[in-house]
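We close this part of the discussion by returning to an individual protein. The encoding preserves chain order, so positions in sequence and tokens coincide. The sequence in question and its structure tokens are set out directly beneath this paragraph:

===
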Amino acid sequence: MTSLPASTEHGANAAAVTLSKKKKASTSGYDCLLLPEIKLKTSNAAASLKQLEKRFGYLWQAAHTILPTSALLAHQMISSMTEMARNNGVELPAAVLDFICECCGALLVPSLSADVRVQAQTHKSAANRKLTKLRRKLQAQHGTAGAPQILRNILRMCCRRCEHVNIRAGVSEIVKPKSKKRPIEGQTEAPDTKRAKTEPSPVSLILQDAAVSTTQPGNTELEKPRSMFAPPPSPPRKLLDGPKKKKKKKTADTAVVAVKSNLSSFLQSLRPSTAKK
């Protein structure tokens, strides 16, 4: 027999390894899931608490791993985990309880054991009203309930084992309180901006008064103006309406007049005579 070359044997071994990995991945598809870590809060001793956490962690991981091949065995593991928590007086974390059916206690995994649908919510939806009532109850008991929140959507997880719909909270947002406008300093009352429809405006009253005054010819007396738009009682005065002041003529000094006359006579004597002889 002829032996295969080393390169061919190496390639065949690599193909076999990859094929076996694919088969394992198809049977156990939950190796890459990030499952929530189980942390318990109880008054028991620390040693027993750590043992319970390890036991719960093993059952939780094993149930997720075996669910694609045997859903019945995964359901038995989850039921034993919940029964053990009930007997020891321990409450499981909310991240674990969200994936356990409320009716039959089965493990809820999307597309395998449950169908998930996202439903949008409004301010007046049933889930938000329930959340508001719970917040008011906590505020009445403890005096504070934290920042107000509303749900934008919810998750409807329908169990394929018992067809029960489990509702889980989705995305939430914090409601910011509305800011109130501060009153202006020195202003005690707000201005009357809203007026009744039946109440006439001041502009219409002014126009009515002007129309009545023009239609009555015998009324020659000037009435007192009712508003700034009414005509004034007398025409406005101007700065130059007063009597004109007469300018005083300056009296000529006699000495100056005598000097001017002597000078003019002297200048006339110097001119040549142009009269015809």
